[in-house]
Design goal:
alpha/beta; 27 helices; single chain; binds zinc ion; seven-stranded mixed sheet; seven-stranded antiparallel sheet
C-alpha cells in the first residue's frame, strides 16, 4: 500500500467509522435483522461492534471485513511493545490504531478501519515507515490500545537507565496521604527525584516544569540562563505536575489558582530548600517552578559580591548614611536582593537596630526583626512598613517598592530620621528616579531623602577551564581597553567544556552603576530635571554606567564582551546616555534593546518552544565517506549538519551544540554507538536529544536493544536517501521539533 491520496489535513472522524462494513456484512448475510436501520439512526462509532452486540458471530464478522478490505487478520495477542514507540499516543487514539510490529522498512498496524487512507498516510508519516494495515475488531482493539499506551510506559522509558537517583529524600512524609496507588506514581516519583538531584548537580537555581501542546518541558536556570533539559510525553505530564505539587504540599485539587509551598530535599547528603509555586496556564494545565535554595549559603559579605574596588567604596559610603533612602535597581534576576542583604549585613555589624519587611523572608538573620508581608490578607509592604516605623528602628530593609503607597511611606521614613534600603524594578539608576517621580514622589522630597541608587546586573564569569584568548580587534573600537588601563589586560572569550556544561561560563558576579545624590545631581532632581541632563550630571559626579562598569570586567578576562552585550545591551554603549530613560519614563517605555538585555524577564509561558526553522543534526560516524553522504542528503533538506568522527567527540558535540537529533553509527572507534547512547541516557540532560542509530546489520536483536536503551529509531546501512529523510523527519515530528 502506498500513499494513494495526498491529504495533509486531519479531520475528525465521521461516524460510523467503518460505514463500508454495512454493505460487506449484508452481502455476507451477517447483518442481524433491523440492525441496518438502527445504525443509520444512531450512528454508532463502529458498525462491527453494533452488529456483534446484536448477536452476529465475531469471528465471522472479522474474517468477512478483513477479506473485503484485502488485509490480513490481526493477532492482537502478539503485539511487539517496541512498535508502539513509532506511533505517538495521540495519533494512535485518533485513528484507533495499534502498532503490532515494526521492521526497518515497514510498520504493521492493527485497525478496525483499513479503508481509512488518511490514517494510513498520517501514521506512515509519523513512523517514517511504510504502513501495512491488519484488521482487528473495534472492541479488542480499543482494549489493547489502552494497555499499550498506559501513561507509566512513557515515564518508565524516561527513567530507565538513569544514574543513581536514590539520593533525594524529600521531607514530605505526608505524600502517602495523596498516593492513589496507581502504577504511574512510582516512575513519576523517580523522575521528579532525578530531576531535582540533577538540577542541584548542574548548579541550577530554578527548575521549570512547563506544559506545552506535546507534553511537559523541563528546563533549568543556571547562572541566570534557562536551559532545556528534557520533554516529558503528554500522557505523563499531568502526573509529573501533580507529583511536584504533592511533594510541596500544594493543593492538588485546585489547578485553577496559583499556589505556593515549600519543602526540602537531601541531595548527595546535603539539604536544600525547595520553594515551589504553581500557576494555571491557559489550555495546558499548570506550570510549576521550583527554586532551589542552599540554606547553608547565608548572606554574602559586601566584599564577597565581586565588586570592583571603586564600586565597593562608593557603595560603602552610601551605607554610612543614617537617614534617607538608598535603592538597588535592576530587572528580575539581577541580584538586587542579595546585594541588599549584604548591605544589611555590613550595617548590622555596627550594632544598630535593624528591621526588615520582606516577601518572602529569604534568609533568617540573627539579631534582626524580620516581618513577612502577606498581601493576600491585606498586610502589604506599606502597612507592614507603617507598623514597623512605630517601633522607631534605625534602619529598615524594605524588600521591594511596588506601588505609590509603599514609595510614599518609605520616603516619609527617610525624611524623618530613618535609613531605608529597598529595591525597585527599573533598568538603570537614572530611570529609577524617573519612575519614582512618575508614581508620585515630589521632586524636592526625592532630592532631600534619596542618598543614592545602584543600578545592578549579574554577568556570568568565564569558565576558567576553557576560556580562550582573543585579540583586541575582535571588540568594537569603542569597547577596546585604553592604553595604560589600571590592570593587566587579558581578553578572553567563551568556548565550553565538560566543566561548564559547554556553556563557557561558571558562576556570576555583580556590576554596578552608582548614582550618588548630592551637589548638582540633587539640584537637578529637586528642579524635576530627569533623563539625559541628569544622566550627564551623574556621570560628571562619578557614576560609571553599567556598560562601562562591565567593560572593565571584559578587559581583565573575568567575562566576555558577548556576555556583557547580552546582559547590558547596546543602548548603554552610546556615550551621551541616550539609553537612559527619558523624562517621566516608565519601564515599559524602555527601548526594545534594553528589554532584550534582560533575558531573565522574558519568561515565555504558554508557548515555550521557539520554532527551530532549520533543525541541527549531529552525524556521528567514523567513515568520512558516510558522513559526507549523510551530510549532503540532510543539507539538501535545508537542515544544518555537524559531524563527529567518533563516539567521544560525539558526546562532547552533543552537549556543546545541543542538536535537534543525533544520527549515531554503532561501530565507531574509542567509544561505540551503544556506549554513546548509554552515556547520554545516564543523565537527564542527555535525554533531551533524540538519537537515531545507524547499524550495518539488519539485526532485530540489536535494533530492539537500541530502542530499549532510549534511541528513537534505527536505520540500516546501506543508507537509502528517501528512507533517511523520512525517518529523521518522523523522529523530529514525534519529539515535537517542527
Ligand atoms: Zn568550561
Amino acid at each position: 500500500m502506498g500513499n494513494r491520496r495526498a491529504t495533509s489535513s486531519v479531520s475528525a472522524p465521521t461516524f460510523p467509522r467503518d460505514e463500508w462494513a454495512i454493505a460487506v456484512l449484508e452481502r455476507a448475510a451477517l447483518l442481524p435483522p433491523g440492525v441496518k436501520d438502527t445504525i443509520r439512526r444512531e450512528l454508532p462509532e463502529w458498525v462491527a461492534s453494533t452488529v456483534i452486540q446484536r448477536g452476529a458471530d465475531g469471528t465471522a464478522v472479522a474474517a468477512a471485513l478483513a477479506k473485503a478490505a484485502h488485509v490480513p487478520l490481526a493477532s492482537l495477542d502478539q503485539v511487539d511493545s517496541g512498535a508502539a514507540h513509532f506511533v505517538p499516543e495521540n495519533l494512535a487514539r485518533q485513528y484507533a490504531a495499534v502498532p503490532v510490529s515494526a521492521t526497518n522498512r515497514g510498520i504493521r498496524i492493527a485497525t478496525a478501519n483499513p479503508m481509512d487512507l488518511d490514517a494510513e498516510q498520517a501514521l506512515g508519516f509519523v513512523a517514517g515507515r511504510q504502513v501495512e494495515f491488519v484488521y482487528a475488531l473495534p472492541d479488542p482493539l480499543m482494549r489493547r490500545l489502552e494497555e499499550i499506551y498506559r501513561p507509566e510506559r512513557s515515564i518508565e522509558r524516561l527513567v530507565s537507565g538513569l544514574g543513581t537517583t536514590g539520593i533525594v529524600e524529600t521531607a514530605a512524609e505526608e505524600i502517602k496521604v495523596y498516593d492513589t496507588g496507581t502504577a504511574v506514581e512510582a516512575p513519576v516519583a523517580k523522575l521528579v527525584d532525578a530531576t531535582i538531584s540533577d538540577a542541584v548537580r548542574e548548579r541550577a537555581s530554578d527548575v521549570h516544569f512547563e506544559p506545552f501542546d506535546q507534553g511537559l518541558l523541563i528546563r533549568y536556570r543556571v547562572d541566570g540562563v534557562l536551559r532545556e533539559v528534557m520533554r516529558v510525553p503528554r500522557s505523563a505530564a499531568g502526573a509529573v505536575i501533580r507529583r511536584m505539587k504533592v511533594v510541596a504540599k500544594l493543593d492538588v485539587s485546585d489547578p485553577l489558582h496559583p499556589h505556593d509551598g515549600r519543602t526540602s530535599a537531601r541531595v548527595d547528603g546535603k539539604m536544600w530548600d525547595l520553594r515551589v509555586s504553581s500557576i494555571p496556564i491557559a489550555r495546558y494545565g499548570e506550570k510549576v517552578v521550583v527554586r532551589l535554595l542552599d540554606p547553608s549559603t547565608g548572606i554574602a559579605p559586601l566584599n564577597g559580591l565581586g565588586l570592583w574596588p571603586d564600586e565597593l567604596a562608593a557603595f560603602e559610603k552610601l551605607l554610612k548614611n543614617r537617614e534617607g533612602v538608598v535603592l538597588v535597581t535592576g530587572p528580575t534576576g539581577s541580584g538586587k536582593t542579595t546585594t541588599l542583604y549584604s548591605a544589611l549585613d555590613r550595617i548590622r555589624s555596627t550594632g544598630i537596630n535593624v528591621v526588615t519587611v520582606e516577601d518572602p523572608v529569604e534568609y533568617h538573620i540573627a539579631g534582626v526583626n524580620q516581618i513577612q508581608v502577606n498581601e493576600k490578607q491585606g498586610f502589604t509592604f506599606a502597612t507592614a512598613l507603617r507598623s514597623v516605623l512605630r517601633q522607631d528602628p534605625d534602619v529598615v530593609l524594605l524588600g521591594e517598592i511596588r506601588d505609590e503607597e509603599t514609595a510614599r511611606t518609605a520616603w516619609q521614613a527617610g525624611l524623618s530620621g530613618h535609613f531605608v534600603l529597598s529595591t525597585l524594578h527599573t533598568n538603570d539608576a537614572v530611570g529609577c528616579i524617573a519612575r519614582l517621580v512618575d508614581i508620585g514622589i515630589e521632586p524636592y522630597k526625592m532630592a532631600s531623602a534619596l542618598k543614592g541608587v545602584l543600578g545592578q546586573r549579574l554577568l556570568r564569569r568565564l569558565c576558567p577551564s576553557c576560556a580562550t584568548p582573543v585579540a583586541a580587534d575582535t571588540l568594537p573600537e569603542s569597547a577596546r581597553p585604553p592604553v595604560g588601563f589600571e590592570r593587566p589586560v587579558k581578553l578572553l572569550t567563551a568556548r565550553g567544556c565538560s566543566q561548564c556544561a559547554f556553556t563557557g561560563y561558571r558562576g556570576r558576579m555583580a556590576i554596578e552603576e552608582i548614582l550618588t545624590v548630592d551637589g548638582d545631581v540633587a539640584e537637578l532632581i529637586a528642579r524635576g530635571t530627569l533623563g539625559e541632563p541628569l544622566a550627564v550630571a551623574a556621570r560628571n559626579a562619578g557614576m560609571r554606567p553599567l556598560f562601562e562598569a562591565g567593560l572593565r570586567r571584559v578587559w581583565v578576562g573575568e567575562t566576555s564582551y558577548d556576555e556583557l552585550f547580552r546582559v547590558v545591551g547596546e543602548t548603554s554603549v552610546r556615550p551621551s546616555g541616550e539609553g537612559a530613560a527619558p523624562a517621566v519614563a516608565v519601564p515599559a517605555a524602555a527601548p526594545p534593546a534594553a528589554a532584550a538585555a534582560a533575558p531573565a524577564e522574558a519568561e515565555p509561558v504558554a508557548a515555550p518552544l521557539e520554532a527551530a526553522s532549520h533543525p541541527l543534526v549531529l552525524v556521528a560516524d567514523d567513515d568520512p565517506a558516510m558522513r559526507a553522504l549523510v551530510t549532503s542528503i540532510l543539507t539538501a533538506q535545508g537542515w544544518r549538519v555537524a559531524e563527529a568522527p567518533d563516539g567521544i567527540v560525539a558526546l562532547d558535540e552533543a552537549q556543546r551544540l545541543r542538536p535537534d537529533l543525533i544520527l549515531l553509527d554503532m561501530d565507531m572507534p574509542r567509544l561505540d554507538g551503544l556506549g554513546v547512547l548509554e552515556t547520554l541516557r545516564r543523565r537527564l540532560i542527555g535525554r533531551a536529544v533524540p538519537v537515531i542509530v545507524v547499524t550495518a546489520h539488519d539485526d532485530p536483536a540489536i535494533e530492539t536493544r537500541c530502542i530499549e536503551m532510549g534511541a528513537e529509531d534505527y536505520i540500516t546501512k546501506p543508507i537509502q536517501p528517501a528512507s533517511l529523510v523520512a525517518r529523521t523527519r518522523a523522529v523530529l515530528r514525534r519529539v515535537g521539533t517542527p
